[in-house]
Amino acid sequence: MDIALHLPHNVKIIKEACSFKTALEFEVDRPIQAWRWMAQSRCVPDHADWVRAEVTESWRRCLEDYQLPLGNYVRWDHLNTATDPLPAFCNQAQRISDMLSRLGHQFDVFLKEAGVMLVLTDAHGQLLQVLGENPFASPFMRSLYEKHSRWSETVLGNNGIGTAAQLKKPIAFQGMEHFLSLLHPFTTVGYPLLDQDDNIQAVIGLISDRQESMNSLFAFLHLLCVLLNTNLPLTQNPVAQARVLEKIPFKLAKKPPSQHEAAMSEQLTALVDKAQKLQQHKIPILITGESGVGKDHFVNLLKHAGPRKSQPLIAINCASIPHDLIESELFGYEAGSFTGARSAGKPGKFLLADKGILFLDEIGDMSLDLQSTLLRVLETSEFTPVGGSKPIKVDVQIVAATNVPLLEAVEAGRFRRDLYYRLNGAQIHLPPLRERDDKLGIIHHILQRELANLPNPQAISICPSVIALIEQHPWPGNIRQLINVIRATLYTAGDTLITRQDLPLDFVEELGKVMPGIANKALDNGPSYPLAAVPGRAMTLEDWELHGIKASLRECAGNISLAAKNLGITRTTLYRKIERFGLDKIDWREHSKAG
Question: Sigma-54 factor interaction domain: which residues (predicted)?
C-alpha cells in the first residue's frame, strides 16, 4: 500500500515531519554551569554561550514573574488544583483526546519502545490524558500523572508542556535546562494545538528520562500534532501509521539495568558492562573498595544487567557465619542429620543460588575453615549436603567483595593463596565517594530521594549553606555514611528549614579536621568569613552574598530597613534572603555587642 494515496496533496507538512530530525538542531550548550550559577546568584545568567535564549527567557519568567523557589521545590499546593475551562475549549480538548485514543496500536508501541510518556493537557497545563507506559518510579513523577495535575510554568517552572502553552509554539527542554531540579533527569517536549484564531485547544507533550532519541521524539510529536490538526485518514489506518513511523529514524532507547533509583555515570556504566561480559563466560568477579562504597548495590546492578537477571541472587556475609554452622549454611542438610535439624531438611546457599549468582560479601574476613570448605566447591562445582550421600552439581556465578587488601592478607597467612586466585578471575575496583567524578550527582540524587520519602516533602526546604557543607565533606564512610547523615538531618530537624544547626555534630567535626575552622563556623552564627574562605578553595558568589548579609545585619544590630539600605536591596528581598540562609532565628543585637 502506497502511503501517498492516503495523504491530501496540499499537506506538505507530513513530509516535513519525516525529515524533521535532520532539520532540527537541538543543542544544549552549558546548562549545568548556568543552572548552578543561577542557584548561587539568584540571577538569570546573561552569558549567551551558556544556554539557549528560550531557556534564559523561561528562567527569567520563573524567577521574576512567578517568583518560584530554586531547588527541589514546586508549588505543591497548586500541583493538583483543577480549573474549569470554558465549555467550547473543553469540547475541543475532548475531541482531541478521542482522536488520540483512535490512533491505534502502532503509536502505542512507538511510545513504549521509546520509553516515553505522552500527556495531553488543556491550555492551562491541566492534565487531561496519559498515553504509554509510565516508566518513571519517583513519587514526584507519579504525582504529575494524576488527574488534574498542573504542568504550567507557574507551578513546575519551564518544561516542554507548560512553556509550549505559554509561548504557543513547540519547544523542548533537556536535563538542567529545567528550572526545577526534580525535572533535571528528564527531557520534556511540548507542542500546542491551535485553532484558526490562534487560541490553544490543547497541548500534547512527551516526557523521557533518556536523551539519545530526543530529535526523533520531536519528529514523532510534530507528525502526531499534524494528524490531530488535519484529521487525516492516517488516524484510522494502522498500516498507514506504520509506514509513516518507519520514515522517522528512530533509535530504540536503551534502558539502564533495572535501576530507577539512580542515574549511572559513564564510569559506573562501563564497570557494569565489564561485569556483564564476565558473567557471559562465568568468570569469577572480585569487587574491591572501601567500606560503604556500594559494593552490594553494584552487585544488584550487574545481576540485572547480566544473563542471570531472572535467576536468584543469594548473598552470604562470610564474616558472620558461626564455625559450627559453616557446612550446613553453605550446603544444607538432609532430614534428621543432627539433633535439632528440620524434619524436611534445609537447602544450603549454593543450592538456592543454582543458575543464579552467589554473592560472598566480606570475603577478606572469612575464617580459614570456611576458606578450605569453599575452595573445594569452587573447584568442582559440586557439594554434598550434611548427612547426604550423593553429590549435587550446581551452576553458580561467584561474585566476591572485600574492603581488605587481599594480597596483604595472603602474604600475612590470613587468606589462602589458591582461594585468592580462584576468586580473582577479574577484579573490579569501586572508588571512594570523595574520588568519584559523579560525586555531586550522587549527593543530590540521594538528597532528592530521601526528601521524597518524607511524609510532607513539599514543606521542607534546605539552606544552601547546608548543601555546600555536604558537598565539601570528605565522606570517609562513603555512600553509606552519606545516606545516614542525610536521613539523620532530615528526620531530626526542628523546623521545616534545614540549617547548619540540624547537621550531626560528628559530621561537622569530621569536616573540621580536613577544613580547619569549618566546624566552628557551622555551629556559630556570629561574625565569620564566608564558608569558602579557606586555603585551596575558591569563594562562590553565594559565600560572598551570605557574608555580606551577615556583616550588614551585625553592623545595623538587626535593623532590617537599615541593613537593606546599606546592601542596596529592598526589605522584602532581604527578608527572603535571610529566610533562605536560615538567619532569621539569630539575635543580631547580641552579635553586634559581641563584635
Answer: 261-491
